[in-house]
Structure formats: C-alpha cells, structure tokens
Design brief:
homodimer, 337 residues, alpha/beta, 6-stranded parallel sheet, 6-stranded mixed sheet, 12 helices, elongated, DNA-binding
DNA sequence: TCTTTTTGTTGAAACGTTTCAACAATATAC
DNA sequence: GTATATTGTTGAAACGTTTCAACAAAAAGA
C-alpha cells in the first residue's frame, strides 16, 4: 500500500478540523453541519481518493466487522458451499469473513481460534473437531461470540445450528426398510463427534423400531482421516461376510464417493443386489449408473441461521439458540425396491 | 470480546514501562534486557493471559499479515481447492486470508478489492472477471501488491500464474486425433476472458496442424452464468446436426458436468460413438460409465507460486513474474480409441 | 437590551501498539 | 580519578480514527 490520505490531510486541504471531516464522512451530526462545508469536505475527499483506514477505525471503535470461520476443510464441497452461503449472508451486513481449515485436528483448531481472537474478530462460526470442549469453553470464558455449526457437544450449552442427524439416519433406514431391505449396513467414522454418533443412533433406532436385529458387523467404522482403503475394506466386509447386507447407509459424501467407486468395480448390481443411501448431496454421485439416493442437508438455512444468530448475539446477549434442522431424503435409483 | 489485558496492564503489574513489556514480548533488544525482568514480564503476561491486539499492532506497523483472495465462487471445487492450497501456504508464513466471491461480476469484484484495500490487506490474490482491466490498473496505481491467478489480461503487464491453456487444449485435441477422431467439437464459454479464448485457440490450432477443417458449428459457446440448458442445447447441436461430431472437448468442470449428465440420457455410447475430454479434474465424473479423460491443472503449484510471488513482492519490488504452467492430460476411458 | 437557544466548529484525549531518543547507573579503560 | 562504554530502562510521540466537551457566533425569545 502506498497512499496515505488521512482525515488530517483532507482537513488541511479543506481548511477545517479532522473532527468535522470525520463527522461528514460518516454522516454524523448531519443537522448541525453546514451544507456547504459538508459538500466541500466530500469533494476534497473524493478528489483525493480518500479511503478510510478500517484498521484505525477498528482500534477506536473496537469493532472489526470481521467474522472468523473455522471449517474442517474448505476444499470439501460441504464446507465450501456452506462458506459461500455464509459469505453472502455476512456481506449483506457488511461483514467479511476470514477462514481456516482445521483438518479435524484439535491443535490446528485451537490455533485458528486463537489467531482469530488476536485479530479481534467480532465473532466466529466454527465446526470444531473432536475433543474441542475445553477450547470452546475457553472461547466462552473469553466472551468471544460464536456459533457452532454442523456438530455439537452435549456437555456444552452453547449456540449451534446442526442437522437432526438421528432423524436423518432414521429416515434413510426407514426408506430402505420400506423398500424391502432387511439386512442394512452402515459405514461411518470412528470418532467421538456427537453428530456422527447420532447418525449411528438413528440407524440403530430405525432397525430396532422395525424389530430388525442389528448384526454386530453391520456397522463399520473408518478413520476420519482420509482413508480410502479402509472404506473399501468396509464395503468388502459388508458384502462378502457370512451375512451379507442388501443395503448400506453411507455416513458422508467422502465415504459415499469411495464406497461407490469401489462398488462400481465389483460384480454387484445396484439397486438389485444392493441399495445405497448417503449423506450430503454430492454431484459426484449423479453419474453412477444408479444415481444415489441421498440425505439433503438444508445448507442454506444452516449458514444463514448461523450468521443471523451470531449477529444477534453481537447486539444483545441472549439465551443460547440451539437449532436442529430436519433433513430431506431424496430417493433415487440406488434405493429403488 | 471482553478482556482488555494491554501492555499497560502488564507493565503496571510488573512494575516496568510498557516499552519494556513490548520489547520482551516481541523478543527485541534481548541482549540489553535483564533476564530476570524479562522472565517476570513473561510470567505476568502468561498469568494474565495476555493476547496481543493485532489491530493496534497493524495500525502502528502498517502491516496486517492478511491477504485478500478474490475468486469467482468459493463453492466451485476448482476455487475451493485453490483456496485451501493458498490457505496453507499463507499460514506457513503467518498470514491469514480473507476471501470473497465475485461471481464473474465486475461490480462485485471491484467492491471486493476496494473493501480489501480499506482493510489494509498486505496483498491480494485475484481471479478477476471479464473487463476488469481498469480496476486492475487502479490496484496497480494504488500500489497494492497483487497476483492474478487462473486468468490474465494481455494488455496488462502484471504478475500472474496461469495455466498454459492453449497448450492444454492442443494436447487434448491431439490426443483425440491420435485416437482416430476426426470431427472434434468443443463447448466453451461466451466470454472475452483470455484464458478461455486460449482454450479455443489451442483447439483450433491443433485441428489446423492436422489439416482438419474446423467446421463453424463445432465450437459452441454458452453463457458463463450457470446455464445448464444452454449446455444441453450445445451438446444436442453437436451430436444431431448434419455433420455430427465424434468427440467433444469440454472447457470447464461445470460444462463437463452438465454435458455428461445430458449425454448420459442419450442413446450415445462413450467412447464408441463419442469421445470426451474435459478441463479440470473433477471427482464427479469418475463414476460415469466411461470415466472422463481430463486436463489436470497443477493447482498446488499455482497456489503456492501465487503466494510465493506475492510475499516476494511485499519485500522487494521486482519485475512482474508471469508464470504459465503446463497442464497434464490424463487419458481415461472416455477417449479410448 | 439581555438572556437563552440553536448552529457550526474545534481541541484534545483515547484506542493498544511500536520505537526513537534520552537517561541513569554501572562497568571498563586510560 | 576522569573519561568512555555498556547495561537497563523509560517517556513520549506516532499510527488514523472517533467522540466528548467546549466554545463562539448567530438566531430567537424575553
């Protein structure tokens, strides 16, 4: 950066005080200020290409109009779509967003939130990794306004906007059962994250409600770090055990992607031999010969609500808002009876 | 935010001047400062959970350690992947990134760059829309360091990192010709953006080099705003005209996605009746029954070089660096002879 | 005419840092 | 013993804003 047209410079050129310049340029005390003086100041400002220094402004006003966004990985379509929605909602209120990816890593996550605090963000929207309770409590204690998205922590009474994952998984399994499937498997992550546990829970609940005994081996878990081979093993185990499944619920777009690619190489016909339903809408699965049925998350609402709740908090301190959104099951070819 | 532990507070508690606290906490004048005093200051700081106010620091030092990233759309996998790479490269040097999506809209783009300047970013990485020359010149004139990515403007002598699009398209067409295809079409965008014009150029060059007459109707253009139906029409026109093509080059992941989905509904067999090659690696096309051959962009290099060049500029003013990266063609089933 | 109100403007302090220039106290050199 | 260098520390100004409190001049009310 180079230019340094400050209020002072304008004031000098216009022959007035910086105070007056500040008032005029911020449309304050409009009824007090002489129209002509105001016009002159504006003109000088324009002519000098004045550009307010938001850093200085922030220091004084203690407001940065910046919100920090921590996702697991911005290159994951789920999060980049969410980021886009948040960006738009934020910009509408003149906020901008700085972001960071935690890779589901607690240390990275904490580093990011710390950095954001140092940078005096007005608030944050975060998708914290496993075991982040302590850091989240720290944020609370530091009184940084924040809203958790996508996941939540039962032990913490903080604001969040999540999917009703239990219900979502249950919907999926019910749908499979309605389609005549009886031996339903699931592939999910080996993690303590509650929202994923909920997916497992919903799965089990649905089976239970239909008096289907849930075979121990039917729910396979894979590492949350990108582990393609583990997913393939899981698929293999589900399909070629003593009690092979006739349907699988895939707990994320990442899992679905690799599972389907692998299934595509096997002599298994979808939906004839095997029905599939996955979480998250994902374009990548549209071109599979049997387009995947999926659980659609209301991303738009999630992002917009997160911003709305956050900005609300900035104004008035209110009771925690905890939103659990319903998913919509979109049945397609992969789970046709 | 709530706490206000400033240098002054620490100074008082430790019984020294703020100057000294600043020196200690920034590891300055280490050889001058008494070890014990230093230790004491550090201890007080720790105990009070001191957190440097980066806004104040920035105001004083005129450095924000922030870089602005303007992409066309953060939810587009191409840009979100790039963003992730840029994030990582930036964070390694202690910068953070603020981002915005322009939607290929000049006005939005200008608003974003203006905002970023007001916020005193140290530099920017931008993917400008069509007709952004003037705004880019303005940035230059304002002496904001910036690097253009993905696209470029022949009339401007600024830093950029782009793909060698002409070569990339030529590679693709050559590959198709090598595979025995003779009537090769292309679907690209109706835009003045030079990098896309280059794709068209490479396509034509390759045809010309093989003395293949390029039928006027073989190169179809669609609006750059998301226009699924236009893409379908283009596919239709290419396949069901008097001179149907036997291969199509698809100029972006977005175009490829919709084209392939549409082709999937037609009685056309890939690669038997029709060969396909597209730009950008895109997971979504892996599951098509004939996985798509694609032109792989060196995203990693693009992002890292952009940051490297930018940070370099922040230190020393150098000659413009203009990098044109080679693409790698990845042949798969969709273009098998 | 004298008060009171309104209009228009300003100086100065503050936000939390960094950093220059200065100083006192001690140590070293002659 | 004085001169010089070194060590350890500090006050104050500055970065570009905002905003309070004050004031002068003009207008209105008596």
């Amino acid at each position: 950066m180079a230019r340094k047209v400050s209020l002072k410079v304008i004031a000098q050129k216009a022959g007035v005080s910086t105070t007056l310049v500040s008032y005029v340029l911020n449309n304050q005390k409009v009824n007090r200020i002489n129209k002509q003086t105001a016009e002159k100041i504006r003109q000088v400002a324009r002519q000098l290409h004045y550009r307010a220094n938001l850093v200085a402004k922030s220091l004084k006003t203690n407001k940065t109009f910046t919100i920090g966004l921590v996702v697991a990985d911005i290159s994951n379509p789920f999060f980049s779509s969410l980021a886009r929605i948040i960006e738009d909602a934020a910009e509408e209120k003149n906020y901008i967003v700085i972001f960071g990816s935690s890779d589901e890593n607690l240390e990275k996550f904490s580093r990011l939130t710390d950095t954001f605090m140092n940078r005096q963000v007005d608030g944050m929207i975060i998708a914290p990794p496993e075991n982040a309770e302590q850091q989240i409590e720290y944020l609370e204690q530091q009184q940084v306004p924040f809203v958790v998205v996508d996941r939540y922590f039962p032990s913490l009474n903080v604001d969040y906007v999540v999917l009703d994952n239990t219900d979502a998984a249950r919907q999926a399994v019910n749908h499979l059962i309605d389609g005549g499937r009886k031996r339903i498997g699931m592939i999910t992550y080996r993690t303590g994250l509650k929202h994923l546990a909920d997916r497992r829970l919903g799965y089990k609940k649905a089976l239970h409600e239909h008096s289907i005994h849930c075979n121990e081996g039917w729910c396979r878990e894979v590492g949350i770090g990108n582990s393609k081979s583990e997913i393939e093993e899981a698929v293999h185990a589900l399909l070629f055990s003593a009690e092979p499944v006739d349907a699988i619920l895939l707990a994320s777009n990442y899992i679905a992607n690799h599972a389907v690619k692998y299934i595509n190489t096997l002599p298994v016909k979808v939906p004839l031999d095997l029905a599939l339903v996955c979480f998250d809408e994902t374009e990548s699965l549209d071109l599979f010969y049997a387009p995947l049925s999926y659980i659609e998350q209301p991303l738009e609402v999630m992002g917009q609500e997160a911003i709305r709740i956050l900005l609300n908090k900035l104004e008035k301190k209110e009771e925690p808002v905890q939103l659990s959104l319903k998913a919509k099951l979109v049945p397609r070819e992969s789970s046709r009876p």
